[in-house]
Amino acid sequence: MKILILQASPRAKGNTAWMAEVYKNAAEAAGHEVTLVDVSKKKIAGCLACEYCHTKGNGACIQKDDMQELYPLMAEAEALVIAAPIYYFTLNAQIQTVINRMYCVMGPAKLKNMALLVSSHSPGVYTGALAEYADLCRFWKAMDCGVVTACAEEQKTEEIQKKIEAIVKNL
Questions:
Q1: Buried b vs exposed e over 122-133: b needs ≥16 C-beta within 10 Å?
Q2: Would you place residue 27 in the very low, low, confident or very high pLDDT band (cuts 50, 70, 90)?
């Protein structure tokens, strides 16, 4: 299965990046083809709401930025893993921009499965992110293969690693 992991933390050695790497290693060990993209390093502008994509653009965004690298990867992905930190009650801006820019194609074409990996300093701040993730699964007609959350004292622990490895088996 082709898996695309969108890692959205700007901290290269941070908790979210660690979670994405654990997922990648477990999925590759299970025989899947995995691409991990650090979207926080990409230059991706927000959606302009210009409707070019749904009129003259035939599904193509008028903006020509690093999102152009992601469209073909998302079109081929059978599984999408969103790995994002929670700074203030929802997915961070880096992943929100990518999600919003999928408007032009209305979602990944071959997507069957999704998973969510989120970390934060505080416990109990995941409600907004979980609701958005559930809506994405429904709208993109993808099966929820699992969610792993990790707050401060849980981060980079063997327990979280095992939880991540367990949801890889749900593909």
A1: eeebbeebeebb
A2: very high
